[in-house]
Design a protein that fits this description.
By secondary structure, this protein is mainly alpha-helical. The chain has one domain. Helices cover 78% and strands 0% of the residues. Helix 3 runs antiparallel to helix 4, helix 5 packs antiparallel against helix 7 and helix 6 crosses helix 7.
Amino acid sequence: MSPSIARNSHRTSPAARALVVAATLLLVGYPLAIAWALTSNRRDLALVLSLVSLAVLALASPRRWRLAGAALIAVVAAAAILAGWGMQLSFLPPVIVNLALMAFFGVTLRRGAEPLIARFARIERGTLEPDLQRYTRRLTWLWTWFFLVMAAVSAVFAALSWTAAWTWFTVVGNWVCVGLFFCSEYLYRRVHFAHYTHATPMQLLALVRKQWRAPA
């Protein structure tokens, strides 16, 4: 691990670790549980699962977004239930996850802000060369659009009531796409920027987790 990464590492509380584990299990298990509840005609259970998962997602959001995210989710959930769209909430959490990731990257592209990938690279390297500054900004745009597309695909499957396709995509397809994008970009960078040293994928993931938890 590079010295700059080591200097920026920090301990995680047991509660935070437990929340990360719960959110990870939710990402994998939630679509399967919802698919089972809907095919078993247990709509009340599907609604309860969706409300619990939305609460976990609000708690697992970055600290600076947590209160606003919880309030927004509460308003959306209440409006959907009052409008008789409670079942549509069952398909919402995977869409929210991708939209949150899109915002996590996209908000750093505003004028005067440092693109998120550039921030990761600067933390890793200490300084950022001009060619890497240009590349990391473009890459931040790519990740922003990537998560928007993932959210749109999940939403389309839900809108068309393609429960099986939605389940397969949210459980497997979405995260396979994330892994392929992440690994392909890493290999591209190692080839096209071979004159620089690069953090390992695990070190990069540690930086992402740290930035997700970081306060404003």
